[in-house]
Amino acid sequence: MYGWNGKLLRVDLTGRTISVEDIDPRVAKDFIGGRGLAIKYLYQEMDPRADPLSPENRMIFATGPLTATPVPTGNRYMVVTKSPLTGALTCSNSGGMFPTEMKRTGFDLFIFEGKAKQPVYLWINNDQVEIRSASHIWGKNTHVTEDIIVAETDPKAKVACIGVAGERLALIATIMNDKHRAAARSGVGAVMGSKNLKAVAVRGTQQVALAEPKKTRGLCRKVHTEVNRDVKKGSTLREYGTAYVPVVTNEIGILPTRNFQTGVFDKVEGITGHVLTERYLIRAKPCFGCPIACGRMTRVEDPVYGGEGEGPEYETIAALGSACGVGNLAAITKANYLCNELGLDTISMGATISCAMELYEKGYLPEEDIGMRLHFGDADAMIEMVKLAGEREGFGDLLAEGSYRLAARYSHPEYSITAKKLEFPGYDPRGSKGMGLLYATSNIGASHMAGDLAYMEVFGVPKKLDPLVIEKKAWYIKHFEDIFAIIDATGLCVFLSIRYLFDPTFEVMPTRLKELINYVTGAGYTMDGLLEAGDRIYNLERMFLVRAGFSRVDDTLPPRMLEEPMPEGPASGHVVELEEMLDEFYSLRGWDENGVPTQEKLDSLGLDW
Amino acid sequence: MKVYLRLFGTYRKYLPTSAQGSTCNLEVPVGTRIEGLKAQIPIPSDENLVILINGRSPKAGQVLEEGDTIAIFPAMAGGWTFLRD
After folding, report:
1. The domain spanning residue B31 has which CATH number?
2. Can you give the pLDDT at residue A230?
3. Is residue B26 classed as helix, strand or coil in its secondary structure?
4. Among candidates A200, A202, A195, A201, which has minimal Cα distance to A12?
5. Is A372 within 8 Å of chain B by CB?
6. Stretches in chain B below the pLDDT threshold 70
7. Which of A221, A486, A541, B79 is 20 to 30 Å from the Cα of A594, by its Cα?
8. Rounded mean pLDDT of A161-167?
9. Could you tell me the pTM of the whole model?
10. Is A196 in contact with A91 (CB distance < 8 Å)?
11. Touching check for B56 and chain A: CB below 8 Å?
12. Whole-angstrom distance between the N-terminal and C-terminal Cα of chain B?
């Protein structure tokens, strides 16, 4: 096979057995790879009603056919599993160097099942696989863990691991790779912790075979030339990282502020990209094969907030910053470093703290339960909450369960700004209506990565849509969910794909992406066939949800989004008209009124219950 | 009349030194249209950019009013222009 390695590695942690299986080329083509192939295996191998923290849950690391190829940004892997935070499936995506190294071991997927009796880590050196004791690393943070494992294995090994938060089954725990990159969302770190699997270290030296190497390299050169020309003219992502975004979302009135009570933040200028670049940036840091380099290596020299690491990204600034009313970028950056070291999702962590702040200020959460005061804007309290959550100490034990369980505990679940119990990312959907439909319907809960229409509603890529109207948004969300499934499945990063591999028209068709997949794999996708594969992935994920017990009642948003008009700013007076979009969305998807795929739809995609 | 201009991302470099954060004050003649204002800023004409008036998408030919805030930024977090073949 070309592009695909055609093999998966299966690790049964209970029986300590390791096996290698071939991947059927027809299945690979139907599901592309990465997220798509992973859901195919997840669906056929586990009961969707299983307890996500039980040995029955599968955890799949998946690369795509373009991972570790010359295609720019071919550096992604995904963690696909049943989420302990949401009860739905999840696909949590990360870049860096680990995914490329993983693909070069000769496997497309690692499937982990069962539960080790004692803490272990896996050392995969090409086709040599060892399960090693991790007793001496258990309890260590992610940076120390990576250093120890690299020293014990190979200086060139790449490591994905959990921190203390994952060990202690925090439902908002991440899997960190290359120290600073995160498969962050939905508590995948807790699943890894539940399996007593501290880390996976990989060393791979096998090149991915290309079906048409000359054509692949030719088109890649063209893309590189375009990106480099644009970077020379001035690239916002290169200069400021995603941290440049707060001023933009604030301008249109959708920057999450004080637990989404409003969409404008008076301290926004202090938490935005130019401040990060001027004060703290050491250098821009690319993932493997990326000409953009949006990553930020930073250092804060400050007696209280000092530290060094990577970040913050926009989502982190919105969640730990404006959502908590915190306008101090040094403090936000410090909290980001702590999340990375403890292994916590910065979005869910910030959103959960901001929820606690609102509950506290409204008098529903007593100070004695927290152990301190917890007002919006209190940077030191915010940082203390991160530490407590990561260690699950005191009040942090509850924070580690995410905002829904926290708010429900205090009898006010309406203050949890979540969909399917996953905390919202940094776009208030009252001023970005398509994002509202996305959060409500996404198979993994409120994730921008499931079909980020903010590209069009906020950033004008490839064309600008009015964020305040609902017309045609059902079509766009269906289309974006499908094309994001395709991008994920290939193993590329969306930043490059949307900009350089899709047509710059309102139809947003993946013309160049299709060419690249065909040059790499030789699979001969037609445009219809490729789009159908995205639709197939999305529908199989939905089937998993349906069998796990989800239906229309779960495709919803918190009351604040549906009933409480935005109080100020450009989106003032707006709510999300969800029901008006939802029927049209189901109809476009070929689902019945309860959000269940019809038999006719499944037949057309070659799927079956 | 006075309007406020905000430039984000790489367009920050076009802000005058008198700017406060991302915002500067501009004096423009009454009746100035959005296209006329854009022409006063030295952004290359082939740039793919986003313009907002008071946080909302403007209509073509929209006439500015006293106190309006005009925000301009490169299309997308990437800040790149799509170069067509």
Report:
1. 3.10.20.30
2. 83
3. strand
4. A195
5. no
6. 76-85
7. A486
8. 98
9. 0.97
10. no
11. yes
12. 42
CATH of range A235-423; options 3.30.420.40, 3.40.1000.70, 2.60.40.10, 1.10.569.10: 1.10.569.10
In whole angstroms, give the CA distance from residue A238 to residue A295: 8
Q: Is A72 on the interface with B (CB under 8 A)?
A: no
Segment A141-164 shows an average pLDDT of 98
Tell me if chain B has a CB within 8 Å of the CB of A231. yes
**CB proximity A227 to B under 8 Å:** yes
Query: What fold, for A7-203?
Result: Aldehyde Ferredoxin Oxidoreductase;  A, domain 1 (3.60.9)
Q: Which residues of A395-427 are buried (b: 16+ CB within 10 A; e: fewer)?
A: bbebbbbbbbbbbeebebbebbbbbbbbbbbbb
A238 touches chain B (CB under 8 A): yes
Query: Is B48 part of the contact surface with chain A (CB cutoff 8 Å)?
Result: yes
Q: Given the DSSP bridges, would you call strands A109-113 and A7-12 parallel, antiparallel or unpaired?
A: parallel
Q: List Cβ neighbours of A297 (8 Å cut-off, separation of 6 or more).
A: A281, A282, A283, A284, A285, A308, A309, A310
pLDDT digits (tens, 9 = 90+) for A195-228: 999 999 999 999 999 999 999 999 999 999 988 8
Per-residue pLDDT tens for A570-591? 999 999 999 999 999 999 999 9
Query: How far from A558 is each of A39, A172, A275, A419, CA to CA, in Å?
Result: 28, 19, 33, 7
Domains: count for chain B? 1
In the block, tokens 């090693």 appear at A132
Residue A569 and residue B55: Cβ atoms within 8 Å? yes
Whether A572 contacts chain B with CB within 8 A: no
Q: What is the count of residue pairs from A and B with beta carbons less than 8 Å apart?
A: 105
Architecture category of domain A429-605 in CATH: Orthogonal Bundle (1.10)
User: Residue B9 and residue A231: Cβ atoms within 8 Å?
Assistant: no
Report the chain A residue with the minimal C-alpha distance to residue B80. A230
A292 touches B at CB < 8 Å: yes
- Residue holding tokens 């940036």? A281
A515-545 pLDDT per residue, tens: 999 999 999 999 999 999 999 999 999 999 9
Residues of B in contact with A569 (CB under 8 A): 55
pLDDT of residue B76: 65
Mutation to test the B interface, candidates A222, A244, A428, A512, most B Cβ within 10 Å: A244
- Distance CA(A419)–CA(A554), nearest Å, equals 8
Chain B positions touching A240 (Cβ under 8 A) are: 9
Q: Please tell me the distance in Å from A404's CA to the nearest CA on chain B.
A: 31
pLDDT reported for residue A38: 98
Measured between alpha carbons, how far is A326 from A502 in angstroms, rounded to an integer? Answer: 37
Tell me the mean pLDDT in the region A241-259.
97
Q: Is B52 an 8 Å CB contact of chain A?
A: yes
B9 neighbourhood in chain A, CB within 8 Å: 236, 239-240, 244, 248, 273
Q: pLDDT tens across A83-114, in order?
A: 999 999 999 999 999 999 999 999 999 999 99
Is B12 within 8 Å of A274 when comparing Cβ atoms? yes
Sheet holding A77-82, edge to edge: A17-22, A7-12, A109-113, A59-63, A77-82, A89-94
